[in-house]
Amino acid sequence: MLTKEELKQYQRQLILPELGLDGQEKLKAASILMIGAGGLGCPVLQYLVAAGVGNIGIVDHDVVELTNLHRQILYAAADVGKPKALTAREKLTQLNPLVKITAYQERLTAANAQKLISSHDLIIDGSDNFPTRYLVNDTCVYANKPLVFGSIYKFEGQVSVFNHQQGPNYRDLFEEPAAEGEVPNCNEVGVIGMLPGIIGTLMANEAIKVICGFGETLSGRLLTMNTLDCSVNIFNIATQKQNSSMPLTAENNPDDREKHEISINRLKNWQAATPAEVFLVDVREDYEFEEFNIGGINISLYHLHEHLSTFPADQKLVFICQTGQRSKMAVNMVKPFFKGEIFTVKNGIDGYAL
Predict the structure, then answer these.
(1) 8 Å CB contact between 50 and 95
(2) What are the Cα distances from residue 14, in Å, to 3, 135, 180, 216, 295?
(3) Residues 162 and 219 sit within 8 Å (Cβ to Cβ)
(4) 19-33: per-residue pLDDT in tens?
(5) Strands (E), the chain
(6) Residues 6+ apart with CB under 8 A from 149
(7) What is the predicted pLDDT for the residue at 249?
(8) Does residue 241 surpass a pLDDT of 60?
(9) Are 244 and 141 in contact (CB under 8 A)?
């Protein structure tokens, strides 16, 4: 039941017929856990608190750093050195004191993940590392909790909804974690400050749709955005059969990753022995391809769906990128629609000199 104060405060969204009084009461009754109070977590938290989500938990063990401030706009220069979870709770309470906010000033680990995740209705992952992403995903699968996912890299972002109404989970998109050091983070390659604001806002929008039950969520689909040219694409995600009776791990996850992944040396041997049988596609951006490439054609990952009909089924279709991550994603996107052999090059261009 909404109070008079709540009816007044949320009036501008209450008058939306898709949301209405019923949707606002669902928001008030909802309990959300935000993993990470950094670049993605800040806009997600700000908009969900403003929207009137009743209970929000924030998990973050880190402190505010000066280099965070260009993108984590919930914080100010005076907050440098303060714990993010506690500082975020303080700021968000000022934004909307009607929302109950709990700060967990700790790292999400295998020891606490199940307890934290199982006690909330919806989980939002704004983490910046692969071990945490897989831990969050696998725990959500085990606890049967919907997961709103977002990630950012330089000028590019991704958003999806996993484990919602029997939809795919994160492992259906990326079957296994990247090797340590294989994919650099924002500290190493940088990120444009506005990107997490854009992606985080989209994540908050997906969370509200899941809670209130209106619109079409990104369950089973991956939205990608490149802010260099403002291109937005949506890819379908094929669901693999998973055993959800136990938490998934790299050891018990039944996938066929090995038959799709080849080494750079194996690719070189194929190109030397039977070059006509290899169709190499570099899925990096054009400026990366122009700087250095090992041949093949260049089709950005974010425009791959436009060229599905051009891939020859009688040749070995090989995807390559800088580190091997985007090419793995390309394989997962294309293989439901491609009848021939399809491969990704382990370690990508970075492995060329190994």
Answers:
(1) yes
(2) 13, 36, 46, 19, 56
(3) yes
(4) 999 999 999 999 999
(5) 31-35, 55-59, 100-104, 122-125, 147-153, 156-162, 221-226, 231-236, 261-262, 278-282, 297-298, 316-320, 342-345
(6) 125, 133, 137, 158, 159, 160, 161, 162, 170, 203
(7) 36
(8) no
(9) yes
Angle in degrees, 0-180, between the axes of helices 41-51 and 84-95, rounded to the nearest 10:
30
CB 96 within 8 A of CB 52: yes
Q: What is the DSSP string of 154-216?
A: BTEEEEEEESSTT---HHHHS-SPPPTTSS--HHHH-B-THHHHHHHHHHHHHHHHHHHT-S-
Residue with the two structure tokens 């997906």: 206
CA distances from 257 to 41, 201, 304, 343 (A): 31, 33, 20, 9
pTM: 0.75
Q: Is the separation of the CB atoms in 283 and 300 below 8 Å?
A: yes
Give the C-alpha separation, 180 to 131, whole Å: 9
Round to whole Å and give the CA distance between 134 and 141: 10
Q: Angle at CA 186, nearest 5°, toward 306 and 324?
A: 45
Asked if residues 147 and 121 have their Cβ atoms less than 8 Å apart, the reply is: no
Q: Tokens 């929000």: give the residue.
A: 56
What domains sit in the chain, N to C, each tagged with a CATH number?
Answer: 4-236 (3.40.50.720), 257-351 (3.40.250.10)
Sign of the dihedral defined by the CA atoms of residues 188, 193, 197, 202, in that order: negative
What are 45-85's pLDDT values in tens digits? 999 999 999 999 999 999 999 999 999 999 999 999 999 99
Residue with the two structure tokens 């136990």: 246
Cα distance between residue 96 and residue 88, in whole Å: 12
